[in-house]
Amino acid sequence: MLLPIFLYGNRVLRKIAKDIDKDYEELPQLIENMWETMYRSDGIGLAAPQVGKSIRLFLIDGNDLAEDFPELKDFKRVFINARIIERDGEKVTEAEGCLSLPGIREDVTRYDRIKIAYQDENFNSYEEVFEGFASRIVQHEYDHIEGKLFIDYLSPLRKRLIKSRLTAITQGKTEVDYKVRAPR
To answer: What is the CATH number of the domain that holds 10?
Structure first.
C-alpha cells in the first residue's frame, strides 16, 4: 500500500525517533509499504518519520546508482534502531535531495566513512562500515530518525535563498507525482 510522504513542516520530521522491538505492530507490513512507497516515489532511501511514524527505521536500495557508485551494487538494507558509532575520513560535498523537500537540491558536506550499528528486519544485529556514496545515503536517512533534514547543514545565506521554496512546501504548494501529506 502506498503511504503518503510527509512534507517539510510536519512535526514528525523534527522528532527524535524511538527504538522499536520485534513486537512493533505490523512491522513487516510497514516495511513492505515503505519499499513500495519509496520505489513509486523514485527514492533510494526512506525513513519511517517520512511516512508519519516516529520510529528508528529506515531502508535503502542503492542499486539504481551502482553504475556510478560501485559501492551501491547489491546495497539493499533495512536499518532498525540504528546508531552511528563513528564518522571519519574525508569531508565530501555533494548535492542532496529529499522526498520530503521536493524540488530542493543543495550541496551538503558529510564524512565519506561511517561505522553504524543496527538491526535488520529480523532483528539480527550488525556493525558495519560504509564508505563513499553508501555512507552519504545512510547518513541522510539516519538524520531523519534524529529529527534532522539535509537543509540543516546549509549556511544561513543558503537557507535564506531557499526560504520561499520551503514556505511553499509547508503550504502544500508543490507538484510531485507521489502521494504526500502537507503540514496541518
So the answer is: 3.90.45.10
